[in-house]
Predict the 3D structure of the following.
Amino acid sequence: MARGYFFTLDAFLAIGIILVGMLVIYSYNPFAPSPEQSYAYAHDTINLFTETALEDLNEPYIEWLINQGYVTNKKNTLMEQIGEFYFKAKLTGNTPINYTKQLQNMLEYLIDSLVEEDYGIGFYVNEEPVYIRGDYTSDALLLISSSTPAVGIYNTTTLWGPYQIEVRVWK
Amino acid sequence: MEINLRLGKRGVFYTAISLLIVSIMLLAFKSKPTEIASGRFDAEASRVEVANALVKNINEGFIERLLKVSSYRALNALALYINTTKDPIDPSELNDVFKEVLITGNISGKPIDEEIGIKIMENYTLVDNLRRLEEAAWEGLSIITRFNTTNSNVVVFQSNASGAFNVIVNLTLRYTVLAGTATWNVKKTWSVKVPIEGLYDPLWFKWEGRAIPIEFAEYEVDYAKNWTSLFKFIDNIDYMRQPYGPSYLMRLTGQYNLSSRCCGIESAVNPYYLNFTREYNRTYIDFCFYTVGKCAPYGVNKTLYELENITTHTPNTKFYGFKLDARHYVGFSAEKGSGTVGLKPSGKPSVGVIECEINTKNNWTQCDSAQWHTTILGTRAVCEHTDGYDKIIAAGFRLRNEDDDYTYFDVPNSTRLDGGVWYYNNTDVYINDSGTWTLRVRCEDRQGLVDARTESWFVPWGTANIIFINQSGNITAIINCTGGECDEINITLE
């Protein structure tokens, strides 16, 4: 009888050790952020920027850009406008108008209302960062990106692009 | 205490129970196969979604932008090609020619940029742009895209849909998108409106060799209300709609005499910009000026009008000899019924074409063909008048060699009038004098108004060949003059 008790106790002890070990293994990353949210931000941002024309936005800052002449075609989508600002910045060297600054201001204004503050977000054109909110470090827990090609017309005779415009979201 | 570890039935039983419990717990923590599979399917679905978005972008924006830029450049390249060849595009071949330039950048198999000497289509043909799109799709999204331009179809036209300010280009194209397990095969027709603003007018290339870009007047042109608006319209060589005039594509195909109700355009002839040295008896509107029979002084309403504050009679001023027909005066005056404010009929004669009959009967040609040892059998000239040819009562002809200061004939009135052309059947003049020749024609109307014009041409001097012959100390010089008259030659032996 004593042996039976011994062996049973031994077995339960073994089970307990295994259970503890498994708990340790599976609870290694108990607070991993949900990838779905980051993917939604990245993907939805790309979709919004691709499908929404500037003239359809009821945003005072966009209207200001149009009135000041920084935006020459209000039928441009947001994605086309990013590409156009990028192209003009390269073409003119940001003189006399600083198109890079206009692009960053536009994105900052729009993104603040679209993406939560605790998510970092960055826009890249042909791998070159044009706007980044939040510091991206190797400690970031999650990074999701979504990209699309964009092409547009400048002055009727010149084509800009195709540029690869990418949105990265991280936390 | 020594434990007896003999295998007993209870020990085995309890150990087996423990192993069973552990096994059950292991199975409970193992991932379900379906979860692994759904992870893989999510990635594939995402790839298809990205490819779908690319197809949507291609269908709803990318191709249209590429097509617009390439089409605009192709139209400009064709206009510049006309400047090089002075030969408009055959109307029946317009679609084929445009398609070739648009897609490949070639015309009749040769690079159009080389033909015109300007890089317009380089890197901007439709093929170039589509290849860039294919590369971007592969490098950015790892999606294979292939556009098939070989069996594409292109149509270019103007209509009520395009209006005067645009040209419509329709492109039918097939393309394929490959994204992993999903494939798209698409055949679609895109239609874009290409603005003609900024393109060079082929009409000006053809007739004057001038690069004049089409810029539409954004102000009201109303001579009766404000003459400076018309002055500006002429000075800037701006454009406006004109249903009686040819459209842009008609100008590209040399159909200047046609009218396009939907899409006709016009500009004024600026004599100051074109450095006119004389006044012309024509309507100073582009398609009227260069088309016989379209506008006054031809047709039913032959009257031409000069405009106060616009027309001058001094060369090199704005605007020397400018005239309009009644249709255009009305068109430039928004207030109908403003009458003839500032207008006065331009009724005076002007000398038109002058020709000589050289060597053989009825061989009428330009008088500068009367060269050494040819014979002028007769002369003729057109005397024009804004109020009709019948207002001319006399045409005088005078032929001179200016270097010799010799007049061959000088008659105040010619011998024959035939259909507005005045003929003088002079005594045959054999050209055996070199130097400057002039033929002056003088047209006079019933009111005594006169216009005269002189054609001059040069007959080159001859070449003298001198041969010396020595015969027993006697030297003889033989002078042979060929190709023209030789001047006096003095030979001195030393």
Observations:
- Chain B is about 30% helix and 30% strand.
- Chain B has a mean pLDDT of 86.
